[in-house]
Amino acid sequence: MQYGILEYLERQLATFDEVPFGAVDAALLSQACMLDAPWAVPAIPAGDQRRHVLDKLFAHGGRPRGAHFRDLARAERFDTLLCGFTPTELKRELFGLIASPRFRDLALCDYLSVFDEASHTQFAAMTFIWRDEFAYVGFRGTDTSFAGWRENFDMAYREPVRAQALAATYLDAVADHLPERLFVGGHSKGGNVALFAAAMCREDVRARIERVWCHDAPGFRTGSSVLERAAHLAERIHMTVPQDSLVGMLMDVPVTPQVVHSDAFGGIDQHSLFTWEVAGDDFAYVERVADASRTVHDAINEWLAAMEPRDVERVVEALFAAAAASGAADARAFLRLGPDTLKSVREAARRIDDASREILSQALGDLAAIAVRRAGRDVAAALFGE
Fold first, then answer.
1. Which of 56, 95, 105, 162 lies 20 to 30 Å from 232, alpha-carbon distance?
2. Hey, which residues does 214 pair with through a beta bridge?
3. In terms of domains, do 55 and 93 share one?
């Protein structure tokens, strides 16, 4: 019998002492990182304060102090608490976490959020502690802001982007006052920066990491030094993508992802973890990703490989100039990531300067030509709107 992760949350009554922390638990906590509650979750301690945090956390019989999920259930806060693309499902998850004997006693701490439009930075992290047994260091995925999406695109030509550097710094900073056993993870960009942090953190911290969970996360540019560093963690990396993955098929990853069955119809809808199915205590896996997902991966990698980093940067700058000119309220309205995407981008490009429009038009034409050559015109049209 298969069911969704929210049903798993409501059905799984065993504590982590009874059933070990696993992939579905990591997915739920990666989504919990979309709960924006700086008013409730203690901030990451600074400087010398870190030396005293461990004693404070476990001052009461081994039960960590700090926020719990019940502290976040404030109706007057919902407008800002529930960020991301799926606020309705996230609200249901919150109440499931509050009720669950598996999750309700987790301590939430070390909240950190950095948002800066000028540097295209959208970063947030939070740590979840189970008694003195283990900690899950979770990183937030991309929100709906243009800054957050611009940072995703910046990964195609720049390393590290600021969110990646912040993730490694964050992991090093919190590890000193956490239990010995560490899990690290996230969904979408959160999974990318989690893997970056695990690969680039201090050696003594990296040695404590039992598992890195990357849920439908974009990879790294071909030849990235992170891929080489991450390869040493290969046995501890658990990557998952849905069968029609788009985001998780972007660029290169150090291990072969496991493929999860999603009950959503389209690739971008399958990016939502709330559409992923569970069998027992783990995800319901299928044999491989769909051919269309592989085509997207191969076409975009070939497209990026043909350009120098500065050329990719110019394309990204032109794309987001078009986004600004489109009048879209946020990235969700502009980057629909479906068959009409390139058409929408080209329509928006009519409103930008001639030089940017030429750069963008040439780049999108090149991508479409690669897709046609690799998959045929009909498939390319279905994937890219060409």
1. 162
2. 186, 239
3. yes
What's the count of helices (H) and strands (E) in the chain, helices before strands?
17, 11
Q: How many domains does the chain have?
A: 2
- Given CA atoms 84, 86, 91, 97 in this order, what sign does their dihedral have? negative
Kindly give, in sequence order, each residue whose CB lies less than 8 Å from that of residue 112, ignoring residues fewer than 6 positions away. Answer: 43, 44, 123, 124, 125, 126, 166, 170
Which of 238, 185, 246 is closest to 218 using CA atoms? Answer: 246
Q: Does this model's pTM top 0.90?
A: yes
- The pLDDT tens digits of the residues spanning 272-325 come to 999 999 999 999 999 999 988 888 889 989 999 899 999 999 999 998 888 888
Distances (CA, A) of 141 to 83, 122, 191, 247, 328: 10, 9, 7, 12, 21
Whole-angstrom distance, CA of residue 40 vs CA of residue 322: 38
At a CB cut-off of 8 Å and minimum separation 6, what does 283 contact?
Answer: 23, 24, 27, 240, 258, 260, 261, 276, 277
In DSSP terms, which residues pair with 183 in a beta bridge? 136, 211
Map tokens 């068959």 to a residue: 339
Residue identified by tokens 């600004």 is 324
Among 309, 305, 350, residue whose Cα is nearest residue 327: 350
Rg value, the chain, Cα = 21
Give yes or no: residues 238 and 97 share one domain.
yes
Last residue of some domain: 272, 289, 306?
289
Say if strands 107-116 and 121-130 run parallel, antiparallel, or are unpaired: antiparallel
Pairing type for strands 2-4 and 282-283 reads unpaired
Classify residue 12 by burial, with Cβ atoms within 10 Å: 0-12, 13-18, 19+. Answer: buried
Same domain, residue pair 234 and 315: no
